[in-house]
Design a protein that fits this description.
Length: 253
């Protein structure tokens, strides 16, 4: 713990176990970031991120790192939504996610929503480095404010590199104190839930997906290489999840 907040890092390392499954030689939680291995599904190891404390609060510095080796399959979820809250420290909180998947590895990163509560200030970064033949499903969902309250300040940056090439680098800032227009027609247009789905599969290189609108609240954009991005807005978390689930079902076997 620092003078201005809690600093904690959780690490996951996955590799093939030599028997067609996935071993987890590294599974290290810290402070508010607890990791629990759950029942495996075939060759896929499953890990649940459990929040052992409230937060992130103002001044906190949380980091989650996952590394998936060639031949390993890893699914990471979370037990509940993460709620960014105001704290005694005036500094913004940070939540950094670092994901590395080797050529021949597969990662499904499917946590629950991040909720930006009134008065909070959080900067989230997600950086993904994939090998040329790696596979990825990543879902990111953000809810601006709890029921009946205004949102906090939330800045989120997502960067994806495939075989050393940057194919996505974008930042979204919402809430009080962020540049004007975030809630206008060119931004969230009054919606309070926003989410993204990133899918990387080698099949997309041979049969690229076309850019298109998915219903009234989502769009699909092909990214350079074997990747696609789905972005959606919705009135609440429940509707957002349904939209992203439908997109995932249509894009994966």
């Amino acid at each position: 713990m620092t003078a201005t907040g809690v600093t904690a890092t959780a690490r996951i390392g996955a590799r093939g176990d030599g028997r067609g499954g996935t071993a987890l030689p590294v599974l290290e939680g810290a402070g508010p970031l607890a990791l629990r291995r759950t029942r495996a599904s075939g060759a896929e190891a499953r890990v649940m991120l459990v929040g052992a404390m409230s937060g992130p609060l103002g001044g906190d510095r949380f980091t989650v790192e996952a590394e998936v080796a060639d031949g390993a399959r890893l699914h990471v979820g979370s037990a509940a939504a993460t709620i960014a809250l105001p704290g005694q420290a005036k500094d913004a909180a940070r939540y950094d996610v670092r994901l590395t998947v080797a050529d021949g590895g597969e990662l499904r990163w499917l946590p629950e929503q991040l909720i930006s509560a009134a008065g909070s200030d959080l900067y989230v970064t997600t950086r993904i480095d994939l090998g040329a033949g790696a596979r990825l499903v990543l879902r990111e969902e953000q809810v601006l404010g709890r029921v009946g309250e205004e949102p906090g300040r939330l800045t989120s940056r997502l960067t994806l590199r495939v075989a050393g090439r940057t194919v996505l680098d974008q930042e979204l800032a919402c809430g009080p104190g962020t540049p004007g227009g975030w809630d206008g027609p060119a931004g969230l247009a009054g919606h309070r839930a926003v989410g993204q789905l990133v899918i990387v599969r080698t099949e997309f290189e041979k049969a690229p997906e076309a850019a298109r609108v998915l219903g009234e609240q989502a769009v699909l954009m092909p990214l350079p290489g074997p990747a696609v991005l789905v972005t959606a807005v919705a009135a609440d978390a429940r509707v957002l999840r349904r939209i992203l689930d439908e997109a995932l079902t249509s894009l994966t076997p």
